[in-house]
Amino acid sequence: MSISIMVLAAVLAVQGGKANPPDISGFWNNQYTPNLAQALGHEPPYTPYGSERWKNVDTKDDPTGKCLPVGPSRAFTAPMPFQVVQSPKMIAFLFEYQTIYRMVYLDGQPHPPEIMDYPEFMGHSIGHWEGDTLVIDTVGINERSWLDTAGHEHSGKLHLMERIQKLDDNHLKYTVTYDDPIFFTGPWSITRTFTRGKETDRIMAYSCEENNKDVEHRQSNKKPQP
């Protein structure tokens, strides 16, 4: 390659002084994590209130049993895949779980000022690139969602910071930090790995209707007190 062509390629690879971000579009598989404490190696650093809530959680009250949206944490720790659609100003995550989606805005705009008053199940996400890593900042997450299948809960003050690093064409390193002063005494993080699916893989249909007739038959996991 001639020097002039190399220079031109370098110029085209830089926009506004920033290198083009990596392409993470495509089909990806989650690393199933039903209990965040197992990935952390111990229980999260609960506040007294958070500890009491965890002691009394009952899986029969799982909000997904009522077809409520899973929230951003559980969507990325479920055993179901997702599709990434990438553009310069937005990245969309299309989850097989409940056929739900999540949008990460890359246009430099802040969170809307009213988001804490009108929370959404997937929250509001803004992001930016730091080299090969997508950094996502999410707030305004509806407190009715759970963080995982085991029943770790959160408040409306939950703040998620996620970093998705492209290791190679087939692996993404996912690190999420949970910060919720109501449930936890300080931030804590786990790291997972997403693996690329086959070219023939696709998101399958998933239907959950809010008139679920089986809710009343769900069994409690609470043991009777002696």
Sequence-ordered SSE layout with sheet pairings:
Layout: H1 3-12, E1 14-15, E2 18-19, E3 26-29, H2 36-40, H3 48-55, H4 71-75, E4 82-86, E5 90-95, E6 101-105, E7 124-130, E8 133-139, E9 159-168, E10 171-179, E11 188-196
Parallel strand pairs: 6-7
Antiparallel strand pairs: 1-2, 3-4, 3-11, 4-5, 5-6, 7-8, 8-9, 9-10, 10-11
3D architecture notes:
The chain is α+β, with helices and mostly antiparallel strands and 226 residues long. The chain has a single domain, classed as Calycin beta-barrel core domain (Lipocalin, Beta Barrel). 12% of the residues lie in helices and 29% in strands. It is built from four helices and eleven strands, in the order H-E-E-E-H-H-H-E-E-E-E-E-E-E-E. The strands form two sheets. The chain has a nine-stranded mixed β-barrel. Strands 1-2 form a two-stranded antiparallel ribbon. Residues 6-17 have low confidence and may be disordered.
CATH architecture: Beta Barrel
CATH superfamily: Calycin beta-barrel core domain
- Name the strands of the widest sheet in spatial order: 3-4-5-6-7-8-9-10-11
Percent helix, as a range, is 10-25%
How many runs of DSSP E, i.e. beta strands? 11
**Main pleated-sheet profile:** 9 strands, mixed, barrel
Taking all Cα atoms into account, the compactness measure Rg is: 20 Å
- Uncertain spans, ≥5 residues at pLDDT below 50? 6-17
Structural class category:
alpha+beta
CATH class value? Mainly Beta
